[in-house]
Predict the 3D structure of the following.
Amino acid sequence: MRKANLQELESFVTKDGSAIRELAGPSWTEARNQSLAEATVPPGGATAEHYHPNTEELYYFTSGAGRMRLGDAEDEVRAGDCLVIPPGTVHKLWNPGAEPLVLLCCCAPAYSDDDTVMTGR
């Protein structure tokens, strides 16, 4: 049995600027069709606007609060919220608060910088 402990994982920064700790994914686990990571947006921070042509994402917010844009819609997000981001949907996340905004992100297929298109906004 292979397991990952979040507290033991090294963080890395993705193409959109998120700090990520990958719990499961093809780069180092048996997962082949999806990935699961914890992402953190620091106080006052934001991700770069982008979309994924092939990847569907699920965002489950575990702590903090912020704002999320999906396509033309924008709304507040907070711990306990879950959002589905269909492939091809432009999205951006802001953290105007004083504490980190933390979420679990599940990607299918698994996250890849190659499937991340920056919009320049």
In short: The chain has a mean pLDDT of 94. The CA atoms of residues 91 and 114 lie 17 Å apart. The chain has one domain: 12-118.
